[in-house]
Design a protein that fits this description.
The chain is α/β, with parallel strands linked by helices. The chain has helices spanning about 15-30, 50-60, 75-85, 90-100, 125-135, 145-160, 180-190, 210-215; strands at about 5-10, 35-40, 65-70, 105-115, 135-140, 170-175, 195-200, 235, 240.
């Protein structure tokens, strides 16, 4: 896949760190990478946004592009309306991603919030941009209680639009997973109707960038360019195979 859209089951589930891990693994494999953030909200002018954070973690060789920025931490359409700024259109997202695709081996398009968060006053969403691109959509989910319903709804929305989901990634695997998180490792692929494609350890984004780059591939399945084989099983109080 040369263009991969990254969405989440909601906000603060680990989309940006997952996008950085995908980028780092691809760069380590010798691929050129661009990350596209269609709408950055909640960040003032001059401050680093999500695309810059991906570049910081994955390396300066990653091309980082941001289409629009809105100061308030709201859904893109709401933030644009309140700021009196132009909305992001899915056509612009697709056009920019295609232009980046011409010069890069992999283009990662990171959404804001969940799949169906509104971009504009027409009700356009990240799903519309993915459909225009004909690109698969990776789902980043939370680990614990409540994640199955959100994951199932996201997967259903993807299927209803004819969009492929290559897998679901847990964006922040807790250091001490509770019963719900442990059970969700088996249940998330069922909810998503897609394979479990990675586990990112809690706090991965706070690692020093060289350490992050060295470990990123071990958090992702081979399907996503990594080496994680997806075996996490109980061994006393620890979990063998859990990412570190």
């Amino acid at each position: 896949m040369s263009v991969l859209v990254v969405t989440g089951t909601g906000t603060e589930v680990g989309k940006t760190v997952t996008t950085a891990a995908l980028a780092a693994a691809a760069v380590a494999a010798g691929r050129s990478v661009a990350v596209l953030k269609p709408a950055q909200t909640g960040v003032a002018e001059g401050e680093p946004g999500d695309a810059a954070e991906v570049r910081r973690l994955a390396g300066a060789d990653v091309t980082a592009v941001e289409l629009a920025r809105y100061p308030e931490p709201l859904a893109p359409e709401t933030a644009a309306r309140r700021a009196g700024l132009p909305r992001v259109r899915p056509e612009a997202v697709a056009e920019t991603a295609r232009a980046l695709e011409e010069e890069h081996d992999l283009v990662l398009v990171e959404g804001a919030g969940g799949l169906l968060v509104r971009f504009d006053d027409r009700g356009s969403t990240l799903a519309d941009a993915a459909r225009l691109l004909g690109a698969p959509v990776l789902v980043v989910a939370a680990a614990g209680l409540g994640t199955l319903n959100a994951t199932a709804l996201t997967a259903e929305a993807l299927r209803s639009r004819g969009l492929e989901c290559p897998g679901v990634v847990v964006g922040s695997w807790p250091r001490e997973p509770d019963l719900a998180a442990r059970c969700n490792l088996a249940d998330l692929p069922v909810a998503a109707d897609a394979p479990l494609a990675g586990l990112l350890p809690q706090g991965a984004g706070s690692l020093e960038p060289p350490v992050f780059r060295g470990r990123a591939a071990g958090w992702l399945s081979p399907r996503l360019g990594g080496s994680w084989e997806g075996e996490v099983r109980p061994a006393g109080r620890e979990w063998e195979g859990a990412p570190r």
